[in-house]
Amino acid sequence: MALVRVHNFSISLDGFGTGEDLTFEAPFGHAGHRLHEWMIATRFGAAIVGRTDGTRGVDNLFAERHSPGIGAEIMGRGKFGPQTGPWTDLGTAEEWRGWWGENPPFHTPVFVLTHHPRPPLEMEGGTTFHFVDATPAEALKLAQEAAGDLDVRIGGGASMLRDFLAADLVDWMHLVQVPILLGRGQRLWDGLEGLEDRFDIEATPSPSGVTHLVLTRR
Amino acid sequence: MALVRVHNFSISLDGFGTGEDLTFEAPFGHAGHRLHEWMIATRFGAAIVGRTDGTRGVDNLFAERHSPGIGAEIMGRGKFGPQTGPWTDLGTAEEWRGWWGENPPFHTPVFVLTHHPRPPLEMEGGTTFHFVDATPAEALKLAQEAAGDLDVRIGGGASMLRDFLAADLVDWMHLVQVPILLGRGQRLWDGLEGLEDRFDIEATPSPSGVTHLVLTRR
């Protein structure tokens, strides 16, 4: 049976999935790149930013599970861009097309949850962004139809992933706990008391200093 | 040089050091014993509750570091008892003498931070509770004088430990991250943004499922 999976979702030791003050220059706000340095150092992460080096150890082993078997992703609007409210640049030369350039690292349909739908964006490499105003369950149905027999990835950010967990729509989750204290931003864990009743939780520390957490639904 | 140390301080995956609704029957509120099952299973923890069994593995290795080299402890009033406000039972047969019976597992002077001082309580086995209305720095000075050349342990709870961390009074800290989500209670990490600038942070998972975190001041 196809699964709903989460991969490479980084949180700080105090549980924040992103910082405060998100801008075009700072997609994770005051967190900067600190939540994702572990991933950029891997072969998987290096490829995303156009490098051909990168480590091939434990962190890369986890990171590379991001893509195989995935047929669609669902992401929150905050992951697609820092704008809020109605889109103001549609049809202009500056139209926002996501953080990832013309060939985003998804290579599947991507459903962006937003209260402000807009026409789909077909990118290179198989990624098409669809903008939908939907509940988590409705969005998952769309994504599963698009994915066929393949799995669906929940891409975050934190508040959106929290909603999917609260609705019990996630089967498998890989989190990466980074040993920093952000102090402010979006918390992943709020309102999820007792989640351990639904998931087995395993911790694997990496020599890089991060701790990989794997949550498997019972 | 004598150190200020923290040992066996358990937090949930969402960062709570204790739950909500603390009572005489539930010292950790709705958390119950879940934050400390890992410790009660060890030889060290078994001895505290009067058993002679217990594991001798990784968890016990960490747990037993609690006592050697310690000359005094500082604890918050909430660790001593669930009462708030003025003491109402002094001199009565029901006078509260802590959770631990007549021979508490401290065996040193213990300074209890409270806005309501009361006469010292001399217990068996070398533990004497002193009740002081003091800032963290003032309490530490008292405890260091009592400890002589030995180290001082900061005993918690969460809000009190947070105050000592904010005042940069802690040298070494052993936390135990338990894979449960409490959802509510007292958070350890609030207001400590950037703590990693002052501490090296190492994570060691135990086969029991908990993750030991060791923070060493740079």
UniProtKB/TrEMBL annotation, chains A, B:
Recall the taxonomic lineage recorded for the source organism: Bacteria, Bacillati, Actinomycetota, Actinomycetes, Sporichthyales
Q: What are the residue boundaries of the Bacterial bifunctional deaminase-reductase C-terminal domain, all occurrences included?
A: 96-192
Which organism is the protein's source? Sporichthya brevicatena
Question: Which superkingdom heads the taxonomic lineage of this protein's source?
Answer: Bacteria
How is this protein named in the record?
Dihydrofolate reductase family protein
